[in-house]
Amino acid sequence: MELDWLKHWNLETPNKIAIKDGDSGKEIPYADLFRLSNQAARFLINTYQIKKGDRVAVLSTNELEYVFLFFALQRLGAILVPINFRLTQREVDHIISDSQPQLVLFQEAFGGIVENLEFKVQKLLLQKPDNLVPESDSFADVIHLQPNDEVPFTATENDPVMILYTSGTTGAPKGALLSLKMIYWNSVNTQLRLNLQSTDCTVIFLPFFHTGGWNVLTTPFIHAGGKLVFLKKFDAEQVLKLSEKEKATILFGVPTTMDMMARTPVFKNYDLQKIRYAIVGGEPMPVELIKTWADKGIPVRQGYGLTEFGPNVFSLNEEDALRKIGSIGFPNHYVEAKVVNDEGQELAADEIGELILRGPVAMQGYWNNPKATEETLRDGWLHTGDLVRKDSEGYFYVVGRKKDMFISGGENVYPAEVEQILRSHPGVLEAAVIGVKDEKWGEVGKAFVVTRDEELTAEALRTYCLKNLAKFKTPHHYAFLPNLPKGDSGKILKRLLLNEGFPSK
């Protein structure tokens, strides 16, 4: 079965707007999206000999050319590797050396990182800045010069089409391998559960290095023939303004962004009557915030997903938003879910256990990491590491995480990676990091540190972390202790740190 969505919409609704740059106002209809994806594929073949299985990495904000590239690579059976543009040189180096791409496309703003990559790779500007000399061509310039012929669609449903790197529990990011089949079935699940139509429109601000940027609404909308308006970064008032102007029908956010929009002075002024509901993921949304949006006429649908599965896995129907506050709802179509104990036995209602999932929206595994793959994918089930319970009506609730991961502003943070950086500081003997509540970001990191140097300050550690970690991973709070609480085996007892509330220095 050929999964060439663009070819279908090029025939059915060629003049309908597919994607739009919310900053510049530039619009691309489905016919042009199909044409430019073919021309981009032709360019990648002729200039860089990109073939099936090759990786192409991108370090960029959300740009229209990013979308052309994604669909061009599918025609070639090649694999897109989006890179988080908030990462440091060290973190980007790891992803590049692990994925070993044939080509890196980048924006000029990130040129310094690309030029200093340890792994030798071909490089090309995604777009040409206004101040760059004309002879310095970019991907955006050259694809228009290619022959306008159709490149055969090579990817089959079991071919990988994307590697999304997630922060690793052992300190190194892992690349989740997403197949075309996974993206297809996730879009089908999303369309069925959200009742997506070709008349739907949404504003997208989640970055393309995140599964939410691609697979919460972008790929399902394009599969359904809808319209997407992209922003390079989140701006609360701009999202509201564009949602009104474009007559958006669905809004997506995390509690932090929903709160920021609701707090803008002009929130009450915008007409958002076309929005059927807001989809909210990442963490439970506070009752008062749900009510604020309900008073605006926009019901909230809480959901749950993860990079390695879906990500549209659970959804809470809007009519249950208040009755089942805190619930992630029940599984979407074609998703099997069980709550099990450590022995893999399914638990009864209201018993807490690990959530495991099975279905066609599971990743193929972790790139270059068979050990992590075997630990996560067992007997056909994906083990999420999340602790949940299911009530007597079949509604699921996330109650904790087997892993230490916490979510800051919608971004996953794994303490092991942060602790590794802290321990690399010459003045640090031991370190432990936990997530603590934060009014703005939901959760932020708090580091508990045993020092070798009594003069070491919280500000010095924060500066050190910012040089080696993305800002959202850097702890906001620091506590200095004479020792860390440990069990008989020597393992640090983080629950004691969480409960004691040690003061920061």
TrEMBL record:
Residues 7-367 form the AMP-dependent synthetase/ligase domain. Keywords: Ligase. The keyword Disulfide bond does not apply. The keyword Cell membrane does not apply. It comes from the Bacteria. Residues 417-491 form the AMP-binding enzyme C-terminal domain. CDD domains: FACL_FadD13-like. PROSITE patterns: AMP_BINDING. GO terms for molecular function: ligase activity. This is Long-chain fatty acid--CoA ligase.
